[in-house]
Amino acid sequence: MTWSDWSLAFFVASWTISLGMIPVVVTRKEHPTTCLAWLMIVFFVPWLGLGLYLLFGEDRLVRRRLQWREETGQRFGELLDGVDCDLDNAQESQRDDHSGEPLADGSSEANPVARHLAIDVEQKTVLARLGRAAGGLPLTDGNSLELMTETRAVIDRLIEDIDAARDHIHLLFYIYEVDKVGRRVADALKQARERKVECRVLVDAVGSWSFSGALAAELRAAGIEVATCLPVGLMRRRLARIDLRNHRKLAIIDGSIAWTGSQNIVEDTYGHRTAGRWCDVMARITGPAVRQFQMTFFEDWHSETQRPVTGGNYFPKPSHDGQVTLQVVPSGPDRPSEDFQALIIEAINSARQQITITSPYFIPDDALLFALRLAAARGVQVDVIIPRRSDHSLVDAATAFYLGYLLHCGVRFFRFTGGLLHAKTMTVDDSFGLFGSANFDVRSFHLNFEINVSLFDEHAVRELRWVQDHYRSQSTEVSREDWERRSRWSRFKANLAKLLSPIL
Q1: Which residues of 79-109 are buried (b: 16+ CB within 10 A; e: fewer)?
Q2: Which residues are catalytic?
Q3: 113, 271, 351, 420: least CB-packed within 10 angstroms?
């Protein structure tokens, strides 16, 4: 074949790919913006676009994972304590307590305090039901919760709990790095195994790729069970795309203590050096909610190993000595992602005074963007705290576009200067809080396996807000005037990156 023949064949093949991908993308992607983003890539660079779509475009889960999750629910579902009706009962009791109180002017109308309490409880009930729809788990009360923000203190306390374990230890982390922190935790696990404590470690294959070598083999040699989530390989068919990851951070000790939040098993200097040290939020939780974290671990463990866990006292009778009402909300592509996003949107819509969000990656979709805009238009103070610089430059560029848009809508933005702000939190007034592993972006809402905690206790919400205030105190507010003075190149990068935001 001549050069012209090869050129013609390449031209025809490129157009065949571009046109042939149209029915594939539009029938397998529900969101129009995502369809347009993928089609743009395929039409501009057909061969590269085809390869990227095969690697990252499909998000189907095979039936086996869904089957394991269903079987886990059937096996352990009866052990999950729940208080689905408690908020309804609280609503009735609050109405009874306040309905007969007169107004200050002596009128006979119902007391506005009672109306306020009733509305507040009704809204919390709606949020609890949305959380149940998203994760399938009920509210639990009687929990104790301790928030921690110092990375080293978290690791020290976690190792103390591991050293005190007597029955079992379950760890599930997106990143388990082979560094000083990873070695310390590994040594504690090996000492626990010497005490005949069952130890299981589940890590993401991509986030913990360095761990999966020598350190994993070392732990297995010590009698610790180790498995990886969603392994990557050309022959892997359990998931059709390689960027769907298990992003959860979870530790369960003896079925009575759970750790969760945004921190991985890694030093706070991990990764992008110029972004600074990582700043995270973790919670140490005791009480009935620990059973739900345990069940979430079993779902992931079963789906990756196909080995049921038997023998230990995995669901001991929980204590109810705390005051915190909370809800565990696991999310992922094996659950209805729209319900988790609906929880976020409904919480924003319920705000009367203040919304505060912290996230290392902030790429809202249309629904979240509209909800924040409406909240600001209602007079709600909406604050979004993001790092001055994250570890992903493309994400930073896309974030810059949404920052500018919402800034003009009245949303306040703060850039954290104390490092890479990795905490993912939201508070709404004094009534609702959310923290966990999910970022405020499309990937966490629809693609990754995440685990979050909804807070319905005002004291716990205020504690979470105190953490947010601490981050705000180390941040610089972005003014509209300074933002308008950006260079043309910065504006162009933001507008270009926004085209890819539906698939970031």
Answers
A1: ebbbbeebbeebbeebbeebeeeeeeeeeee
A2: 247, 249, 254, 422, 424, 429
A3: 113
